[in-house]
Design brief:
single chain; mainly beta; four-stranded antiparallel beta sheet; 3 helices; 21 strands; about 5% helix; about 40% strand
């Protein structure tokens, strides 16, 4: 089983000495994080532990806050005109860290980051609610500029008079921010695969074509080969000329409108023929990959960090009783098997038709070993 490079790098990240930091334009704030990927374990989400180093000589009477926001971006910043905002907050939470107010219980990650940051550093912690969506970005077109549309999470520290005054203008130089990702891995238990069949009759044929298809399991990992078992029983007087297998990504944007659209992420033709009164049985393998879809604008991808690669978006796992609207973007996949049946006799193409069958497909990432101990045992030297 193959896992895409971005998540191999995730496993390396949590076991490495890498620290992520961003300094404000005025040099007064430096934001430190030990990781940028936070795992949704269904019943809880990894705690976000970080540190802000302060240089207070120019702060005066102002205060310092740290904020975690989950937002849906549906337009680039450079399109903001006449006060219009192309970003809608789904969830937002603030803490004041100077003068001292927020005092989290220190974790091993805090201890390590405080040693990195040195004196005048303030720790903070955020609990991400379990009902928030995972990070998803929509693939920009070749000429698109600015940040990608989608759902993202951002840690921001800033200098202000009040933490939530909408009329207060926060200067860009007084702000430091880092984008993080909320991610979800495949469940430990993988179930039996789906199975479907169809029986279709044709004009001028008294008998039908039977098509049956099945998968070995209900979930596959990104980059993993997907074997599809296909059975065809052609009782008709027509010939199955060839057939096509495609994988479609269905994106449902539920936050601000009822936008739904479908994009093919794989399409393969197989030149197999099944003559009249013939049968066919075989297992065909497909592998949908982002690498073959780099030019498709609007394709849903797992949340992207700057200068890092990503992959096709994982299937959205819906919790029971959760309202869909809070999730922003829902992603699902299906496999379509299409038999192209040739028309025979004098009428030729007038009696040709297709036989189409669909199977649901779930695409996710495998859970790295030791993932549950990351928050407490990750030591950065």
């Amino acid at each position: 089983m193959t896992c895409i490079n971005s998540y191999s790098s995730f496993v390396k990240e949590v076991n490495s000495s890498r620290v992520f930091k961003k300094t404000s334009g005025n040099g007064g704030l430096t934001l430190y994080l030990g990781k940028r990927d936070y795992v949704d374990h269904v019943d809880k989400v990894d705690q976000v532990d970080g540190v802000v180093k302060l240089d207070t000589k120019d702060f005066g009477d102002k205060k310092v806050f740290v904020q975690l926001a989950c937002a849906f971006r549906y337009g680039s910043d450079d399109l903001d005109v006449m006060g219009l905002c192309f970003r809608k907050d789904i969830w937002i939470h603030h803490f004041q860290i100077y003068p001292e107010c927020h005092k989290p219980t220190l974790s091993a990650m805090h201890d390590t980051l405080l040693k990195k940051a040195g004196d005048d550093a303030k720790p903070f912690s955020f609990e991400i609610p379990t009902n928030l969506p995972c990070s998803v970005s929509l693939q920009p077109g070749p000429d698109d500029q600015g940040k990608a549309c989608g759902v993202d999470f951002e840690i921001k520290t800033f200098i202000a008079n009040k933490k939530s005054d909408p009329d207060e203008k926060i200067e860009k130089k007084d702000t430091a921010r880092l984008v993080i990702r909320k991610i979800q891995f495949a469940p430990s238990q993988i179930g039996a695969g789906p199975k479907a069949d169809i029986c279709k009759s044709f004009m001028l044929s008294d008998k039908p074509v039977h098509l049956e298809a099945s998968l070995e399991k209900d979930l596959y990992f990104h980059g993993e080969s997907i074997p599809i078992k296909i059975k065809i029983n052609n009782e008709s007087n027509k010939t199955v000329k060839k057939f096509k297998i495609s994988v479609e990504q269905l994106t449902d944007i539920v936050l601000y409108s009822a936008d739904k659209y479908t994009k093919a992420v794989l399409c393969q033709e197989f030149g197999e023929t099944v003559e009249s009164n013939g049968t066919y049985e075989n297992t065909l393998t497909i592998t949908p990959l982002l690498a073959e879809n780099k030019e498709k604008r609007g394709l849903s991808l797992d949340g992207r960090l700057k200068d890092e690669d990503t992959n096709l978006a994982s299937t959205t796992m819906l919790r029971q009783g959760l309202e869909k609207e809070v999730l922003g973007i829902l992603v699902s996949y299906k496999i379509k098997i299409n038999l192209m049946v040739a028309g025979g006799g004098l009428l030729g193409g007038l009696t040709s038709s297709d036989v189409t069958l669909e199977l649901p497909l779930m695409l996710m990432h495998p859970k790295p070993e030791g993932i549950f101990s990351i928050t407490h045992t990750n030591k950065l030297s």
